[in-house]
Predict the structure.
Amino acid sequence: MGVFGRRNLHNLCVYFLVVLLQLGIAKMGVHGQSVTTSDQTAKEGDAEVVITCDYSQFTADVPDEIQWDELDQDGVNINPGFVNNRKKENGRFKLLITPGKADLVMSQPMKNDSQRTFQCEIQTTDGDIERSNPSILTVYYLDQPFLSASGSAVYEGQSVTFTCSKPDGDPIPDITWYKDGQTVNTNNPSRYEIANTSTESVLKIKSATEEDGGRYTCKAESDQFKGDDAKTSVGIQLTVYCM
């Protein structure tokens, strides 16, 4: 073989090597990138939460297999294929398939669902399998606060203390005091003492007057639970007797 022939053979070998490397890089690039999900948030009380799996970059065809798995905190598959393209509904879960996407729909998310981890898996008719990155679900929640009092009836001049136990919640809630549906002006140190800890809020009326009589409640609010979504304690009616 002449020099010219060897040179052509060398160039041809280099060409095929480059093609193989490109195919290998493309194949490596598919993993962890071509099927994607993202972390999702919901609120306890929502009708549903949707976690989307996008496989449009992995295959243009309808996959032969689509399934969602649940992983533990160590990434171990603890519930493989609990919904798939053959079993599209399972309890509170269902699989919604649209072109290029496979959505996991959970109805009525609860606080116990928070930090559950899900992953979707796609298999083509050629047998290629690709798994998405894990998706962590965060469910915000807020329980109802509990209100207690040192007494429900006092004489004028006596003190009375209300204690509002801060409810469990994510995010951690703040407490606001109400009397007859109106915010208590706790910034008046001559009449009230207010103390807040990580577990409770305490409102003390130093020297009760007739106008302090009424129905007291405490409301828990957070960034996720405001207005109508906030949680209010059961009220306590305070009666102040004149001397």
Residues 67 and 117 are 14 Å apart (CA to CA). The helical segments are 3-30. The longest strand covers residues 77-84. Confidence is low (pLDDT under 50) at residues 12-32.
